[in-house]
Amino acid sequence: MKIVFEYRSSIILFNILLGLPNKKPFILPSNICPIVIATFKKAKRPFTFVDISLKTFEMNKEKLIEIIKEKPDAYGGILWLRPYGINKSNEAFFLTVKKLNKKIFIIDDCCLSKPSLSFENHNQDLTLFSTGYSKYIDYGWGGFGWINSKEINYSRTDLMYNNND
């Protein structure tokens, strides 16, 4: 396990997406932040959306499991959003996903949650926290991530500003 810090949590996401060995699509919740979508596009990582549960505002777990069961090897990962900073364990659910496809990369997006400087293993491969504008703690910049995967050798990518992007 390793902790990384960057100017924004989306930079960590970008670097992780570039570093993943398989280039299969990710499954994202339909209520994800537009910055996350832009990050996936910048990393040239395909993705598809899954509707959310109107009870929890999380990705619809039943629908997600159905999609993965239908094509277990079709997806490279899921990005699990914790809406409104909800702090609950998804350990059992993530384990269910891993049993369907042990290689699926699970990102636990805790960017709206209270940052935690201790790692809790809930079968996720990456846990992201944000400490920038409008987050639980606003330091005015920053994000960090807990990498819980031996498959990732995290490295920074220098991006040059391009007005066309």
Arithmetic mean pLDDT: 87
Please give the largest β-sheet: 7 strands, mixed
Query: What is the radius of gyration computed over CA atoms, rounded to a whole number of angstroms?
Result: 15 Å
Protein structure class = alpha/beta
Multimeric status of the protein: single chain
Order of helices and strands: EHEHEHEHEEE
Number of strands: 7
Q: Give the terminus-to-terminus CA distance.
A: 33 Å
What amount of the residues lies in strands? Answer: 15-25%
Q: State the helix count.
A: 4
> In terms of per-residue confidence, which ranges show pLDDT below 50 for 5 or more consecutive residues?
none
Tell me the overall shape.
Answer: globular
**Strand order, biggest sheet?**
1-7-6-5-4-2-3
Work out the helicity level. Answer: 10-25%
Q: What report would you give on this structure?
A:
- The chain has 165 residues and is of the alpha/beta class.
- 24% of the residues lie in helices and 20% in strands.
- It contains four helices and seven strands; from the N terminus they run βαβαβαβαβββ.
- It has helices at residues 9-19, 34-42, 61-70, 91-100; strands at residues 2-6, 26-29, 47-50, 77-81, 105-109, 126-130, 143-147.
- It has a seven-stranded mixed beta sheet with strand order 1-7-6-5-4-2-3.
- Helix 4 links the parallel strand 4 (77-81) and strand 5.
- Helix 1 packs parallel to helix 2 (34-42) and helix 3 (61-70) runs parallel beside helix 4.
- It is globular.
- It starts with a strand and ends in an 18-residue tail after the last strand.
Topology:
Blueprint: E1 2-6, H1 9-19, E2 26-29, H2 34-42, E3 47-50, H3 61-70, E4 77-81, H4 91-100, E5 105-109, E6 126-130, E7 143-147
Helix pairs in contact: 1-2, 3-4
